[in-house]
Amino acid sequence: MRSMKRSTFKVAFFLKRNALRKSGNMPIVARISIDAATVQFSTKLEINPEAWSVALGRVAGRGGEALRINNTLDSIRTALANIYHEQHEKGNTVTAEKLKNLFLGHDDSQATLLQLFAKHNSDSERLIGISTTRSTYKKYDLAMRRVEEFLRYQYNLSDISLKELNLNFIRDYELFLRTNCSLSNNVAAKMIMFLKKIVTLAFNNGMISSNPFANYHIKLNRVDRGYLTNEELETMMSKEINIKRLDQVRDVFVFCCFTGLSYVDVRNLTHSNVRTSFDGKVWIMTKRQKTDNPVNVLLLDVPRMIIEKYSGKLPCQLVLPVMSNQITT
């Protein structure tokens, strides 16, 4: 029987020098090369760069830590070689990416994090206007892209098996959000909440046997939002603004102050929500988007004048020219 041509196969280890830990250590990365293609993945080991031999691709010396790490690196090299030869014996085409996935345990038959994330987001997009909003969908879309960035940065992976998720993964993701993405504590916490929902979904559907978030607590800092005094609000209202866009933003903000309605509730207002009640007074009658609870607000003089300012000038019977406050990067 004619034997298959062997491809060039090599495994090497090196330090990820742009990911210096606070301890002074650097992560050890494995590189698989098959023919002209290469892929990398984290060995989940780290060492002080002064103890690393670049020429040997392993820890220098014969101390306890050097032996422990070098033995693990040898085990990784041996396991990769065994998988590579096994696939060749079966007559399968072996690529660097496929070999990495087989070694890490997330072949095509296993559910992955980004696959589940993408399905969740696709389902959410179809429910816009039914049980969710476009702004909520965009937040989940951004959250998935953050996870993609993290996987490439931390592990040089395009995806990861759900079964590989653990507490360290979550903590490393939090550190990535706080440092690489420069997010504040509360914004990072909200990104992690989106990830938690996806992981909990996997747990509830039996895709993973344990929830890595079980021992992780999301901490939100209390924020003092402050308030405007009557004098400050009067100053804002009397300020002459010649830029149309800023004038509209000011009007919407003042309207929110006098009605107590949230940004999204004001954005959804149409003239059908402005009604004269049995008492002869004009009220805003609507529902909170977030809770779907009904809310009735007596229309005072200031918000009434703002409504009149834009009456008949906006499409779809909208009350005010509310601009989007969504920022996606």
Automatic annotation (TrEMBL):
Pfam families: Arm-DNA-bind_5, Phage_int_SAM_5. Residues 112-218 form the Phage integrase SAM-like domain. GO terms for molecular function: DNA binding. InterPro entries: Arm-DNA-bind_5 (IPR035386), DNA_brk_join_enz (IPR011010), Integrase-like_cat_sf (IPR013762), Integrase_recombinase_N (IPR010998), SAM-like_dom (IPR025269). Keywords: DNA recombination, DNA-binding. Residues 13-100 form the Arm DNA-binding domain. One of its GO terms (biological process) is DNA recombination. This is Integrase. It comes from Mucinivorans hirudinis.
